[in-house]
């Protein structure tokens, strides 16, 4: 396929550092769009603030770079007004689950037909490596110089508990899985979340002595455990592991379908 | 004579008139969050929109509601949210986004006492400065203040028209008294209502510049999903919509953004005068307080004091020229408002402190009475 067809070539080079995994996720997204044959005019990509949120600037779709944490709120309004658009939200761990956490869980509860792709690198990379809601306990960040005292969110489990219709987690090492999950998420007529673990060697790896981008990806390879296998493992055995796979894949009416029912009821009553 | 009921006559409260005015203006998407004393606006639209092809959504918070109406407007709908003081504070960041990205939308603030939770069920007019400067950065804003139920209807329509015409958020600054006041109003025939829609691009998608610098100062706006693939950001951007760090391009766009208001202020600013031709005392007021002010002016005239009223329907951009045209012959100016002098300060500025400005202020949730203004006029 021709990746350049989907990219705004004049916006290159991108801002992502050497060894960053974000470009790998972007290629996965573009491969799936190409495979599904979606027209560029029919796609809107919405983001908030952060490294991941610069993705929309590089792709030749209808693109909206909003305020920190609020992408899902903007995307909800756009989807309601233009239900035929494929609305994709790209977000980071901090953007989606710290400042934007409320929108994230409520969009899942509402089951609005959006796909949220979360680039989880455990850190606020763009602003110099501050601790995020997914930074593990004890890991170092610029705002956690002695180790992070805060417990992390498990983003996929959070989305599952909040009612999302589709939730999966992959890593940038596992590109085949990432493609498959993004495709399933795009085809889901409801709120779908794909969490992709991605290395930030500059702001996280360096500080925590986890090596360069390649070494951090090798860590992903060695430490990923499929969701079925993880169920048979003890909590100790799962320490430091990345559980990958599909956590939720269910059919339920989405917000717009339920609002259509509201319209029918309102029209009957007001006839 | 036969008593035929006029089908256009309604007994409405201000908040209902706001919701109905929005519908008349073509608003078909509302996102909101419950907050007293604005909730009736959301409630009416939740009831009405499913029947007339609109979409109502109750969002998880005020911030989300503001974000959703910006997203909806980019999709091509006329969109609105409604709130009150604390919620208005929460919306400020995204209001700034709408200013920066030039996305038309309407924000209603039915004012209550503040700061903080303040007086949820009592009126105030203390968000005058928040409406002007609530979001950060140098930015233009349009703020309209209704003084009656009928005017709430009319100014809601006008808020949409100005938002669409100038590609920016417009704030309807009502207050608890007007929002909950029930009056008999005659709604206009739809055919008599002027409706303005945003300027659509005539360029081909390849040549479209969403923030084009041309003589109009107001770039054409394409809707998402209609063949014009462009980028919208809250970052400083150039004509293409993409972020830039070029000081020259940033300056040009920022000056254009602010020029939209400076250049078209005569089209935006609306005031109403009452008994101002031969006046000795100029009373300035707005919103619900202007009703008391009008009665005070009438009472003062009966006592032989030549008082006149300037009622501000637009408060931002500030009607400085309109004040300038009136204040020279008067011996004093009385400014009545339910805050500690937010408009009085602007009046002093506009009149260069050449006349004494008597402030009639109240911040305890009670309305300012005609007599309190009357006393200030005749003293």
Key terms:
heterodimer; A: 271 residues; alpha/beta; Rossmann fold; 8-stranded mixed β-sheet; 10 strands; 38% helix; globular; B: 379 residues; 3 domains; 5-stranded mixed β-sheet; 16 strands
Give the gist of this structure.
The complex is a heterodimer of chains A (271) and B (379). By secondary structure, chain A is α/β, with parallel strands linked by helices. Chain A has a single domain (3-269), classed as Rossmann fold (3-Layer(aba) Sandwich), CATH 3.40.50.970.
CATH class of the largest domain in chain B: Alpha Beta
Q: Return the average pLDDT of chain A rounded to an integer.
A: 97
- Approximately how much beta-strand content do the residues of chain A carry? 15-25%
- Write down the overall geometry of chain B: globular
Rg of chain B, rounded, reads 21 Å
Annotation, overall tally of beta strands of chain A = 10
Stretches of chain A where pLDDT is under 50 for at least 5 consecutive residues are: none
Let me know the largest β-sheet of chain A.
Answer: 8 strands, mixed
* Straight-line N-to-C gap of chain A: 53 Å
Structural class of chain B: alpha/beta
Structure description:
The complex is a heterodimer of chains A (271) and B (379). By secondary structure, chain A is an alpha/beta fold. Chain A has a single domain (3-269), classed as Rossmann fold, CATH 3.40.50. Chain A has helices at 22-36, 55-58, 71-81, 93-99, 101-110, 155-162, 175-187, 201-205, 213-223, 227-231, 255-269, and strands spanning 43-47, 62-65, 86-92, 115-120, 123-124, 130-131, 166-171, 192-197, 224-226, 242-249. Chain A is globular. The model of chain A has no long low-confidence stretch (mean pLDDT 97). Chain B has three domains: 9-192, Rossmann fold, CATH 3.40.50; 205-266, no CATH class; 273-378, Rossmann fold (3-Layer(aba) Sandwich). Chain B has 13 helices and 16 strands. Chain B has helices at 14-25, 39-52, 62-74, 85-101, 128-133, 149-166, 176-180, 247-263, 265-268, 289-302, 320-327, 342-350, 370-378, and strands at 9-13, 27-32, 55-58, 78-83, 105-113, 119-123, 142-144, 169-175, 182-186, 231-233, 271-274, 281-286, 307-312, 314-316, 332-337, 357-361. Chain B starts with 8 loop residues before the first strand and ends with a helix. The mean pLDDT of chain B is 97. Chain A binds chain B through residues 11, 40-42, 44, 46, 56-57, 60-67, 70, 72-82, 84-85, 102-103, 106, 255, 259, 262-263, 265-267, 270, and chain B through 29, 31, 47, 50-51, 55, 57, 59-61, 63-77, 79, 93-94, 97, 223-235, 242-243.
